[in-house]
Amino acid sequence: MQSLKQLSEAKTIRDFFRLLSWETVSLFALLPALLFAVTPALQFFNNLSCGWWYNMTTDPINNTCSVLGGLVLLLCIGKMIAEPVSFRWLCKEYRPMFFFLIFVLLMLVSTAVNGVTDFVLHGSPLHESLFTFLQYIMIYYFCGSMICVPKMKRVFICLFLSVSLLIAVLALLDYYSIIVIEEFRDARFMPMSAVFINPNYYGYYLVLAILLSSCTAFMEENKFFRICSLLIFIINTATLIINCTFGGYLACLFGLVFQLIMLYSIHRRISRGALGMLLLYLAITLVMSFWYNNVFTDFVRLFFDLQMILNNDEQAGHAGTGRLRIWIETVGYIMQKPLLGWGVEGTWEFESSPPHNEYLHRAVFFGIPASISYICGAFSVYLHGLRHKNRLDCYTLAALTASFGYLVSSFFGNSRYYIVPLASLILGMAFKAPESEKK
Q1: CA–CA distance from 310 to each of 203, 258, 264, 327, 360 (Å)?
Q2: CA 213, CA 233: separation in Å to the nearest integer?
Q3: CA 70, 76, 77: angle at the middle one, nearest 5?
Q4: Rounded distance, CA 378 to CA 96, Å?
Q5: pTM for the model
Q6: Which single residue of 122, 185, 363, 384 has CA 20 to 30 Å from 51?
Q7: Which candidate, 240, 147, 219, places its Cα nearest to that of 426?
């Protein structure tokens, strides 16, 4: 790590930024990631003491992370001015950020056209304002993408998995009434939601934890960390099955298959570790099906839902627990204002339900071009990973796998202000290759 003595040798601001290492920039970028990684644990302890809503935990953390993210941005700008790089190289290596900046610009244009409402400034009952959507990209994704040192990604993953284990153990203890946690049984909370209020949101959090641990369980060099990751994978998978979030279950399944394919493309042979994690996931499902048959039931329901849709059945709108009807309704609103959308919560007064699809969510708020630019940004992260696949370390691959799973789960769920920052951070870490790539 760079010492302060080295930086103190700088005689001018330009010298300071020349001496400033990217590893030091990564360290500052790591701080917002660590802060948000502990929010579920902080929410649990806040619930014990005050019964706080989640936004009362995340708001001060978001404010702190915004300041730290602004500092990281200034350091990056200063570094690039002191050590100029060609615009062509910048466009090539940071292509995802260019797409995300287009998304940000379109959000601002949409807001200017649709008007600055109270929802834009302060958010809806779902606690997502314009500033929240901006933070997802400009703070969390950006900071995640600047963490270019593998050992720093390791610190984040270790902390994230530790917190997920704590929440899962507490949720299971409460579920089986071994320890009654009144805060998990509040009337506002649904069963097996832990601190996340809704079981679906907890399910999408578990997707990130399961897929991160699936990679470190067999690729991590430290044996103790491998064993811990395997234990966390098993406990979180069992928790997800009890949680009954089928979209999350499918996302993990697709994520594990993606990991297997990714490692095959790198080594040109099937990875026994990745195959083992996929088989373990299916084995846990099979064993738990003796007590919890919800996964099997959900697959049967999915089969009949697809059959209804293909046969154009009049009950097809109920497919996906009513999601198809909501998606069709949302598409109708999108087609009324396809270019710039309705603005933040512009359809709140006459929309029967949130879209239950993050891509449609962005399209109805900010327009189809904005949603496409977001999708292109996420897709280009994976193109970047494929281009540098032979230089991917364990933690970048884990982030790619977890992000892939979350992007799949986004087809079935709503954007949530205490989950998306974590997903954005991990997507950013999936983009950035090791430090040796910087030129």
Answers
A1: 28, 27, 35, 16, 22
A2: 6
A3: 90
A4: 7
A5: 0.92
A6: 122
A7: 147
Cα-to-chain-centroid distance, residue 79: 28
d(C-alpha 406, C-alpha 209), whole Å: 10
- Give the angle subtended at the CA of 236 by the CAs of 232 and 239, to the nearest 5°: 145
Q: What is the C-alpha separation between 341 and 365, in angstroms, rounded?
A: 5
DSSP 8-state assignment for residue 137: I
Q: Give the C-alpha separation, 309 to 365, whole Å.
A: 27
pLDDT tens digits, residue range 322-342? 778 888 889 999 999 999 999
Q: Is 35 exposed, middle or buried (0-12, 13-18, 19+ CB in 10 A)?
A: middle
What pLDDT does 49 receive?
75
Q: Is the Cα torsion angle 323, 329, 335, 339 positive or negative in sign?
A: negative
Rounded to the nearest 10°, the torsion over CA 60, 61, 67, 72 is 180
pLDDT confidence of 434, banded at 50, 70, 90? very low
What are the CA-CA distances from residue 95 to residues 140, 168, 420 (Å)? Answer: 17, 37, 21
Tokens of 418: 């205490």
Among the ranges given (3-17, 102-116, 167-181, 322-336), the one the predictor scored with the smallest mean pLDDT:
3-17
Helices assigned H by DSSP within 268-367:
272-288, 294-310, 323-336, 358-366
pLDDT tens profile 66-101: 999 999 999 998 888 888 877 777 777 788 999 999
Is there a contact between 190 and 235 (Cβ–Cβ < 8 Å)? Answer: no
User: How much helix, strand and coil, in percent to the nearest 5, is found in the chain?
Assistant: 75, 0, 25
Q: Give a three-class secondary structure readout of 264-289.
A: HHHHCCCCHHHHHHHHHHHHHHHHHC
Residue of 345, 403, 357, 382 whose CA lies nearest to 125: 345
User: Which residue in 178, 224, 209, 176 sits closest to 41, CA to CA?
Assistant: 209
The DSSP call for residue 138 is I
Count CB atoms within 10 A of the CB of residue 375: 17
Other CB atoms within a 10 A radius of the CB of residue 180 amount to 9
